[in-house]
Sequence to fold (251 residues):
Amino acid sequence: MTNKPPQDFKDRIVMVTGAGDGIGRTAAKTLADHGATVILLGRTVSKLESLYDEICQSGAPEPGIVPMDLLTTTEEVINEMAAAIDQQYSRLDGILHNASILGTRIPFASSSLNEWRDVMQVNFIAPVMLTRLLFPLVERSKDASVVFTSSSVGNKPRAYWSAYAVSKYALEGLALLLADELENTSPIRVNIVNPAATRTAMRAAAYPAEDPDTVKTPDELMPLYLYLLGTDHQGEHGELFDPRSWEARDR
Ligand code: NAP
Fold:
């Protein structure tokens, strides 16, 4: 992928959800490597702690850790987190909504209502809750960026991808709604990334027969993530990005 020159994220406070593994982990580490103070939100504390140690040992700004299960979280818990962020950092310059679960790929008629609820909660309702309740902090940034992570099946739901596809379709709708509302009233940028096939545990679960070496690594996505979450953007707003089309763009 074509690289833009590295941006300086010094003084940028960026939250990454699902920061313990996969694309979120690489994004959090990369943002920290570029000088950002990252707030690591995830459900497995040991993974967050090992990333915290890795970031601190690299000499990057000390990250924040927020252990939170997006399946069971409540408005009260998120409000407490928002108050803690307010106290420590007083604003948020970016949110990367990355955490998600795959659920089961299954014919619609056989799917379970409980799984619909769980997948919609983690992949769609949790980003709604976080974005709403963190909004006052995001509004305090001079140049905030909110990035929602979709999927190829989010733009056009595909047979058997069940609640995962519909949750991503809804997430894209939320991003476009928010982008339209903020278009002429706020400097906050809202965009969508479809990472497409990327070598992670989720990809391996979705395509168990695939040779992982044939799939790009999360590192290869990072120029796009840095571009969208930093200040080096060109006013990008309300757009859906995937790494291939972005790479091909004349920048
Ligand atoms: P991954 O390797 O499965 O990582 C997902 C992360 O989300 C993990 O850190 C996981 O926490 C966290 N998470 C899951 N449920 C959570 C919950 N209830 N509360 C808090 N955190 C939770 O997935 P990935 O492949 O990196 O995917 C990242 C994003 O890209 C997702 O939105 C996915 O839909 C999207 N995507 C990925 C691909 C691909 O090919 N990889 C393609 C298209 C879209 P734990 O570490 O505790 O499990």
Q: What stands out?
A: The chain has one domain: 13-250. The CA atoms of residues 52 and 63 lie 6 Å apart.
